[in-house]
Amino acid sequence: MCFQNLPVEFDAQGNARLKEGVGIPYAYQTRDVDRSQIEQLLASNGHVKDINLDPVTRVAGAMAFHTVVDLQQRKVLEAHSIGTLFRGYEVILKGRDPRDAMFISSRVCGVCGGVHSVASSLAMEMAFGIGVPPMGLALRNIQLGLDFQIDNPVHLYLLAGPDYSQVVIERTNPSLWERAKKTETRHGNIHGFATMAELMTAFNPLTGKLYLEGLHMTRAPKEAYSILFGKYPHPQTVVPGGLSTTVSMQVLNETEIRIIRTLDYAKRGVFIWDDITQFFYDADPLYKQVGTRPKNMIDTGMWDDPFAYDGTYAGAAEWGDQRWATPGVIMDGELVTTNLHHINMGMEEFVEHAYYEGWENEGTPYPTDPAGNPLSPNHPWNKETKPRPDKRSWKDRYTWSTSPRWDRQVMEAGAYARLWATAAAAKMPHTRFLQATGTSVKIDTPQTPALPAMELEWQIPETWNAFERNLARAYHVVYSLMVAYENVQIAFELMGDGENKVATMTEFRVPRDERVGVGFWGAGRGFLTHHLTMDKGVLTNYQVVTPSTFNASPVDPFGQPGPYEEAAVNTPILEEFDSDKEFTGIDIFRAIRSFDPCMPCTVHIANGDNMIIRDATTCACGAT
Amino acid sequence: MENMISVPMKARVDLPLEGEVSRLLPDQVGNVAGAHNSELQQRLLESGGRRDTLGPLKKVYLFWLPGMSCDGCTVSTLGATDPSIEELLTGALPGVPVVVLHHYQFQMESGDHFTLLLEQADAGALDAPYILVYEGSITDEHLTVGAEPWAAKGSLPTWAPADQRQRRSTPEWVRRLAPGAAVTIAIGTCATWGGIPASLGNPTGAMSMMDFLGKDYRSSLGLPVVNVPGCPPIGDDFTEAVTMLLKYMNGQGPVPEFDELGRPAWQFGETVHLHCPRGAWYEEGNFAREFGGKECLAEIGCWGPVVNCHITERGFINGKGGCMVAGGACIGCMSPGFPDKFTPFYKRPPQTTPATALSRIHGALTKPLRRTTQLERNREPRWRSTTPSGWAPQYDNVTIAHRTFEYFYTRIQYFRSELPGRHEKDEEKYASGYMVPPEAAYGKEYAQLLPDRRADEARKRGTYQRPGLSPQADGFETPLQGDQE
């Protein structure tokens, strides 16, 4: 069954229960961090350098990291990722009227637009026992398709992109630049750049065409988003049970036109990033190891079927499978489950290395979920957020980020995890433009202003590294835009049928009894959950787990580092330098930025035992 | 409207200039482009991307520091179009100095290389004035004595071993840089008024720039903190305010006007309700009864009538969007009282019920009059007894009450004015007796006659009518005949 480490088994009907004969279920022993070897090397080997990067730029939010590299062996020995910002959103929400939750939790992240308000309203829909009318769901799907047209391209062309620009390549790898001048691109007929050197020049900051276009092309989707939801980020029209958007032909028309204009740009992006990826692979196969880590991924899925979603926890396994992006857990490249109940049951958060107090004295208010499945005392429904500022110690606490784990294993979240789970599960209902095959997702794009209709196919990659993350993200831009486009067509049809109702509730009424809810949704960087409990009309607990909380997590009590840390440590140093003084760290930057860190909270990468930490709380995303 | 993506024609960022210091620094970790953004921008300036500018200032540094922020203000500013961020960065606007941006999200350089420019500003060693922009709430670092700060940028001293460094909190940067800044701008509601991180029940003691710097703070130009609020702010509000300030600094414009809370007065002078496209629904007493309704949102919890903002006029981006435009009730995100003085959101504000009750009474009186008048104004002057609408044949049916109302209405409308058309009086006619052709053909009432009535008139007067030209008379089966004069 899907759990290897949790004390959970399944009966013949597939119902989960605690294994019998386990003394204290979910108990664990904390493993100490041992840095003595690193400290010894630092003291004795002149080529082993202690590198302090504060801040790491071109990531969303504030991130710092500390790393130890051996410049002679060209290896990263240790990395610590530090999230240094805490804002306390979960604490602020505790005790508040649930009507405040969507607007307050939205402000967790200003980069991913409205993903938090939607996740919050999903959690409330579950708690209140209400669904959403089809038009409301179709518009939400459009919203979250548009969201990523801002998020993902900003990352590809303004944050990570400049790492592949002429000015950087010329400085860090002169031989690659010479090669680029002589290398023809594979897809010049589509993106218009004949040589790799031309393409890299277009990535130059301030003057490059792709850089300036990256700034400009986020505007059309932002306009469409603002037309439907008022503003971006922090939409103004999301309510439990739907939306308060006033939908009309004009609104749908203005949205559709902007989607098509953006789609043209998005299609080109796939070919640009394919050229970048292939160029580096061809130049040196070692680039396949930049940012590599095990293929362990988790995603909550998103974009509900307007006719399947009912907002219940009991039905989550069914409506989850009907989503445009299938929920899923990938372990060693294999799909383990798509069941949202399993995904929820397997979640735990640990704070042994973060600036929080434990909550073991608070009891376990929810030993099971509403369907009767067992939950850990470390599950978000049982967790308490108790901040406690402290000194930094690589062996003890060093970040504001918690360590979320699934089945006590390190999971990576990302837009690509969404594609991966969808492709592998092949459960996505066949739609007009998108198809999951088991090994790939096919995206059938219509004609757009500059490019003809074309079928794009993202294949589950054999290797997993920084380049594949960026390439998959470029595909994800097209994928999510086509989800939005398809939902515009659905909205038009609904309008034709007179199904214009966008919300279930006519008034925001808050139940007074005890309720629980969870919103399973996705951010630009993947996985997102909001867990809430409420009683007597106020929120008694509110917990947010963001994708960057997974990715930037510090080492867990079992000694496993977080994904950034793993990826940094697995990265070979491939840049060219004559003396240690000339080392820039570009390969490490590429590895880290490929995750699209979202740290309006700060990240700290710590890797004594290979660990990286991210602080979710300061972050737009991590502000849990 | 699509903006053109204009790439500066001759500007190059790949040609190093003499005197660039970043390559000479003790180590190169983090300097991946071999130059800092400030150096790249200097290359751009000198390679011809920048034309001769009006005024003495060629460039101004802009330090963007984040406190407890979600980055939403940055994201919002990226969408601005009047002017756009790229226009400011590449020196596209005459009279506006190039903005040399120092922003954690956009610098090519990381680590100590990033911190260097901040240190230079602190030491007064920059070659141009600087503006300080702060996004996010200010943290209370008294609460973190002996621990890591809540929010920090950079570890100092630079190029020292890790164990000898201290992370510098963003409030400390503000305290050092604000006095020397030409202007200090707080962007977004967290920085201007504290916002959500400073809301009641927060665990960090967060506050706003004004709270932190106090009443007596003045920038080197003598200005208190300039506040551009909003959660998120409208990108154009910010880039516009910065541009106006830059023009002023460069002797190319007046001192921008700010209100008593340091907001750009031309942006925040009125309530968002005054510009709201749904405001007239309020005036007629029509209120949305459910989410998604097209009417005024007052009764589902909108605070618009009391909130200083102009998103309903400016739109959110490029003239598009805006909360109430799309259907979102105002939650006061631009106000110093946000969020706590507006919660619970979606609960009707106390002043709303009496106000909307009055507006319903007003609406009950004015609506019937307006609808009747509107009905008549939806009729051409030619639609008297019949209306040629195939969409709604019943459109013909005009009640006697309507006709009576309209009779008196028209009397009042043209009281001491003249009805259009040349009627009886001599001064309305040609002195020569000339008649325009339709008048000659159908009589002076011609403009109020539909084709069938015109045909009757023509028959009476013996005027020739072309056969096959009148669908109403001939039906659509008849092919158009040739001219048979």
Summarize the structure.
The complex is a heterodimer of chains A (624) and B (485). Chain A is 34% helix and 17% strand. By secondary structure, chain A is α+β, with helices and mostly antiparallel strands.
Q: Please, could you describe this protein's structure?
A:
The complex is a heterodimer of chains A (624) and B (485). Chain A is an alpha+beta fold. Chain A has one domain: Cytochrome-c3 Hydrogenase, chain B, CATH 1.10.645.10. Chain A has 19 helices and 22 strands. Chain A has a five-stranded antiparallel beta sheet with strand order 3-5-6-21-22. A three-stranded antiparallel beta sheet of chain A has the order 9-10-11. Chain A is globular. Chain B is α/β, with parallel strands linked by helices. Chain B folds into three domains: 22-266, NADH:ubiquinone oxidoreductase-like, 20kDa subunit (Rossmann fold), CATH 3.40.50; 270-368, Irregular (Cytochrome-c3 Hydrogenase, Chain A, domain 2); 426-465, no CATH class. In chain B, the strands form two sheets. A five-stranded parallel beta sheet of chain B has the order 2-1-3-6-7, with helices on both faces. Chain B is elongated and about 105 Å long. Classes of the chains: A alpha+beta (624), B alpha/beta (485). Chains A and B meet through strand 3, strand 4, helix 2, helix 3 and helix 5 of A and helix 1, helix 2, helix 3, helix 4 and strand 4 of B.
Distance between the termini of chain A: 31 Å
At CATH level 3, the topology of chain A is Cytochrome-c3 Hydrogenase, chain B
Percentage of residues in DSSP E strands of chain B: 5-15%
CATH architecture call of chain A: Orthogonal Bundle
Structurally, the number of domains of chain B stands at 3
Largest sheet of chain B: 5 strands, parallel
CATH class of the largest domain in chain B: Alpha Beta
How many strands, which pairing sense, and closed or not: the largest β-sheet of chain A? 5 strands, antiparallel
Under CATH, the topology of the largest domain in chain B can be stated as Rossmann fold
